[in-house]
Amino acid sequence: MSRVWKRIILLISAFSLIAVTVLLLVYFAPVPPTGEMEAARKALSSAATNKADTYSRKLYNQANVYYDSAMVNWKRQNRIFFYFRDYEKVISYANLSEMKAIEAENNSLISSSGLKSRLQPKIESLSNLVIELDLLFDSYPLTEETRNRISRGKLLLEEAKIALKNGIYLQANRKLTDSEYLLTESFESATENLTNYFKSYSLWKKWVEMTVNESKRKDDYSIIIDKFSRKCYVYFNGRQKYIFDAELGKNWVGDKRLKGDMATPEGMYKITKKFDGRKTKYYKALLLDYPNDEDTARFRAEIEKGSLPPNAKIGSLIEIHGNGGKGIDWTEGCVALTDKEMDIVFKIVKIGTPVTIVGSLTDLDAILNK
Amino acid sequence: MKNKVLMGLAAIAMVAVLSSCGKVPQEKIDATNTAITAAQTAEAAVYVPAEFAAVQDSMKAIMAEVEVQNGKLFKNFKNVTVKLDQTLAAANQVAANAAVKKEEVKKEVEALMTEIKAVVEENTGLMKKAPRGKEGAAVLEAFKTDMATIEASIAEAQGLYDKGAYMDADNKVKAAKERAVGINTELKEAIAKVKRK
Fold it and tell me: Which CATH entry fits the domain spanning A199-369: 3.30.1490.20, 2.40.37.10, 3.20.190.10, 2.40.440.10?
């Protein structure tokens, strides 16, 4: 064999050896984690599509952090000679990312559908509460603050409905929570107020019985004012003869406590004077004997207790008068009828005619059930 | 001699070909990332969330592909370059779409603002004409409170609009309009009822 051939064979052998070595190295080199990374990426994408970034933010963020860690480690491994690369950490992070993304997606689906199914009944229940509030307290003198809270609660409820319609459940839930707080709190405080108002119901009932009986016994007229229903009942000989709509003091809830509180007093009174023409600015008026002995005693007790300031005055000049028919409670504590109704009443009553003013003729349960 | 020169040239050509395909297209990556950031700044996540998520996912896939090629002996970034070009174009489109959608919502808020202001004004006029008989006046008092709340809500929506939060302003003003229109209907019905009598 010539020297040339020997060299050629040697060269080929050397190349073959190198090629086989390289091939073996490549064959046994660690496989890059392409599949795991793709699975993690797809899981993240699917989670994002199902709003996991909103409804399962913590898990979704964790999944993203794991994915980023996998990428960083992959880059680090790529800088090492290919045979010595170790993708274990990359795979581990990619798997964790995929697992967390799937968990986030499931969580998101459960949370969002759970939230959606909880929102609708909540909206319905709050809408019913709004109806109830309107029915019970439309003409009840709630404080301005309570009225504002109810109004804000209603608007927030409307905003929640729109957010729900647009699929923004978290926002809808936040708005509903705020609305629920405002409406429920207003309802509870108003109901508590109403319950307190009705505490004297048994006494009112007794007063009414006595007034009607007196009308029967004396074969004469007597007047009963029901503050809650804003009615003026005229009795003759124990029988109801007229019913008129009445308007009261701006702050009619509860008994009158002092001068200027705009409350209409509750009690058994009598007409002490009749005014018409220039003697009154309210067309015609019937002056009542407010404050009576009970009112005075109660007022003094309050002063002594300190629940009223020592310089407080009890007030006076409570009348049944004309100029009514405005549709609101506008007087400073008097009872207003329309001029036409006032003509009738003025004509039939006399000095001494009993006028009993009560909080309500109907008990609270009956009103609430109604 | 001639053979050696040819071999040399072939080797240079080979190296040139391999190196041209084997370099990470960093400039394109940076450009695409910049375009995605621009889309994010254009509030694509708010106005075109699905499109924006798709672009982000494409970028993630590309970066994975870059690492796949980086791990190879003979790198080839041709496919990556093509995908980067596509994603860059998509990111620019998403930013443009977000701007269009944002403008649409802005216009919608402006229109709603004009409409609701007209309804509020009409309600103020209707309240003067509304019946004030029994319960009517009390209801009007309640409406007055509601109208004040609606006006406060419009002011809030205007604040959101001024800040560029058009989506939030849109939701707020829609709710306020719904309520104002409700009051408008009730007022008109009450007035019509009185006229019929």
Answer: 2.40.440.10
pLDDT of residue B6: 52
Within chain A, which residues score under 50 in pLDDT? none
Chain B residue numbers touching A41 (CB-CB < 8 A): 57, 60-61, 64
Helix, strand, coil percentages, rounded to 5, for chain A: 60, 15, 25
Separation of CA B124 from chain center: 35
pLDDT at B20 (0 to 100): 46
Beta-carbon separation of B175 and A161 below 8 A: yes
Instruction: Please give the Cα distance from A296 to B109 (Å, whole number).
Output: 61
Entry pTM: 0.74
- Three-state DSSP at A355 gives strand
Q: Please list every residue in chain B whose beta carbon sits closer than 8 Å to the beta carbon of residue A139.
A: 135, 138
Least Cα separation, residue B181 to chain A (angstroms)? 12
Where are chain B's structural domains? 21-101, 103-196
Helices (H), chain B: 2-21, 26-41, 44-47, 49-70, 78-129, 136-162, 166-196
So what's the pLDDT on residue B157? 95
Asked whether residue B5 carries a pLDDT value surpassing 70, the answer given is no
